[in-house]
């Protein structure tokens, strides 16, 4: 497993560098295959990156954006990753991108996962770009410690697609791409900021128990090189 560490003096420099790299990757995919795909994460960390990327001059009409994971909440909820991406990424030049959500207004979250799996089947085989985040508990995507579906979610031999997840640390029920869907992205990045996250990363790198810190699955078993972007 190859890991590349990129450190920057501040969040603005990180956002610019990551946006530059993602723009190059998306443009190359469009040049090679006529279209590009990117899966992004939620939370507060990627907002500046989204804002920066949204102004990059690429053929956004040929880019499909989806989410690494999502809460089972309506898209107008302030807890929705859909709303976060709509507000901070799908604007300016990136307003021309197509967006495929993971949440659907269905009777059960299992129904939503099935629809999301079907809707995303053609856009991530593999993803051109997948940007992960990490929580203070060592979760990434919605791979939470002691999550209800964690073993299945981390199984690289399992199917691609969207799974459900429940965990004490997750709050709402979650929808998440499986590790098998993300691990072979042509460009796989982990975007983290702050000393606390760096400490969590170091702890994860020093151990091996993936159920304790699921980010270890990405650090140790991803099929693509992992580029870690960090700023204080």
Notable characteristics:
Rossmann fold; globular; 7-stranded parallel β-sheet; 10 strands; 3-stranded antiparallel β-sheet; 232 residues; 20% strand; 8 helices
Write the layout of secondary structure elements.
Elements: E1 3-7, H1 11-33, E2 36-40, H2 47-53, E3 63-67, E4 69-71, H3 81-88, E5 98-100, H4 109-119, E6 129-132, H5 150-154, E7 162-165, E8 174-177, H6 179-182, E9 187-193, H7 195-206, H8 215-221, E10 226-231
Parallel strand pairs: 1-10, 2-3, 2-6, 3-5, 6-9, 9-10
Antiparallel strand pairs: 4-8, 7-8
Question: How is this structure best described in words?
Answer:
This protein is of the alpha/beta class and 232 residues long. It has a single domain (3-227), classed as Rossmann fold (3-Layer(aba) Sandwich), CATH 3.40.50. Helices cover 33% and strands 20% of the residues. It has helices at residues 11-33, 47-53, 81-88, 109-119, 150-154, 179-182, 195-206, 215-221; strands at residues 3-7, 36-40, 63-67, 69-71, 98-100, 129-132, 162-165, 174-177, 187-193, 226-231. Strand 7 (162-165) and strand 8 (174-177) form a beta hairpin. Helix 1 crosses helix 2 (47-53). The longest helix is centred in the first third of the chain and has 23 residues, at 11-33. The two termini are 25 Å apart. The model has no long low-confidence stretch (mean pLDDT 97).
Number of helices: 8
Helix % is: 25-40%
Computed over alpha carbons, the radius of gyration is 16 Å
Amount of beta strand: 15-25%
Shape: globular
GO biological process, one term: carbohydrate metabolic process
GO molecular function, one term: 6-phosphogluconolactonase activity
Pfam families: Glucosamine_iso
Function: Hydrolysis of 6-phosphogluconolactone to 6-phosphogluconate.
């Amino acid at each position: 497993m190859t890991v590349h560490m990129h450190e920057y003096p501040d969040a603005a420099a990180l956002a610019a560098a990551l946006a530059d790299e993602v723009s190059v990757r998306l443009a190359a995919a469009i040049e090679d295959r006529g279209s590009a795909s990117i899966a992004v994460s939620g939370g507060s960390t990627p907002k500046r990156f989204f804002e920066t990327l949204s102004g990059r001059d690429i053929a956004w009409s040929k880019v499909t954006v989806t989410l690494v994971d999502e809460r089972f909440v309506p898209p107008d909820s302030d807890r929705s990753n859909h709303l976060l991406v709509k507000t901070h990424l799908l604007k300016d030049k990136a307003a021309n991108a197509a967006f495929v959500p993971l949440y659907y207004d269905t009777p059960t979250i299992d129904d939503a996962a099935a629809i999301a799996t079907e809707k995303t089947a053609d856009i991530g085989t593999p993803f051109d770009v997948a940007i992960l985040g990490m929580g203070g508990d060592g979760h990434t995507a919605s791979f939470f410690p002691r999550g209800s579906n964690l073993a299945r979610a981390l199984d690289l031999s399992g199917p691609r697609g969207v799974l459900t997840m429940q965990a004490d640390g997750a709050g709402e029920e979650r929808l998440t791409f499986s590790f098998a869907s993300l691990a072979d992205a042509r460009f796989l990045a982990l975007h983290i900021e702050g000393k606390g996250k760096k400490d969590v990363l170091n702890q994860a790198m020093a151990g091996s128990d993936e159920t304790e810190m699921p980010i270890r699955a990405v650090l140790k078993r991803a099929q693509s090189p992992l580029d870690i972007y960090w700023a204080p």
